[in-house]
Amino acid sequence: MDGSKIPVTAPVLILLGPPGAGKGTQARKLEENHGFVQLSTGDLLRAAVAAGTEAGQRAKAVMEAGDLVSDEIVIAILRDRLGDADCAKGVILDGFPRTTVQAEALDVLLRATGQRINVAISLEVDDDAMVLRISGRFTCGSCGEGYHDTFKPTIKPGVCDMCGGTEMKRRADDNAETVAQRLAAYHAQTAPLIDYYAGQGALSRIPAMGAIEEIATALDSVVAAATA
Ligand code: AMP
User: Fold this and answer.
1) How far does the centroid of ligand 1 lie from the alpha carbon of residue 9, in Å?
2) Whose CA is nearest to atom 19 of ligand 1?
3) Annotated catalytic residue 79
4) Rounded to whole angstroms, how far apart are CA atoms 99 and 132?
5) β-strands 168-169, 137-140: how paired?
6) pTM higher than 0.85 for the full model?
7) Which residue of 25, 62, 63, 133 sits with most ligand 1 atoms within 8 Å of its CB, as the best mutation to test the pocket?
8) Per-residue pLDDT of the chain (228 residues; tens, 9 = 90+)
9) Ligand 1: distance of its center to the CA of 228 in Å?
């Protein structure tokens, strides 16, 4: 794998956790508070699907079924994005790696540029609550701020609190059947990465069933320690 464009000193943080654990929400906060760049392979894949690229066309049906897109596609997409200049600020990987093959590929990529993973943070949640969390969520189509019908509604119905945007988006794969499959894929293929990173001495676990701000505070301390 060619990692030659990747900046050498950038911190690398990983957020692990099932769909609905709050990885995207917390990654956005870390981006705001620490200046890191959020790299969501889900967002990159959705952009590829929307743009109709070859990778996007191959990924579309897999994503709609709630299964994992092939390692080959995802690793290539992530590697390209990591080469962009803004990643020199440090990156938060949100939704990557999701398989042991991806984790090993990331290790190889980082080793080639003298980097390492600062910390892999596992957001610990109860499976049962995840379906409810996911099925009520939506985002502002203009600024990307995340909301939830029950847990975080907009102040004024249909209007984004942050930017005043009125076009709200719901993800095609945020429905009950697909969520069940996404949770199954997480347990079968991604949960083993918790042991993988524990074995590297890089794992930190954070209880993530509480309020968004409480979890953000706990994350801030872990990230500050890991990037000091
Ligand atoms: P997310 O936005 O992280 O929930 O991802 C949405 C969907 O994109 C997942 O259900 C997968 O189909 C696909 N996806 C995202 N990241 C990965 C990854 N690292 N490996 C395989 N598939 C992925």
Assistant:
1) 27
2) 96
3) no
4) 25
5) antiparallel
6) yes
7) 63
8) 444 455 546 899 999 999 999 999 999 999 998 999 999 999 999 999 999 999 999 999 999 999 999 999 999 999 999 889 899 889 999 999 999 999 999 999 998 888 889 999 999 999 888 888 898 899 999 999 999 999 899 999 999 999 999 999 999 899 888 999 999 999 999 999 999 999 999 999 999 999 999 999 999 999 999 998
9) 30
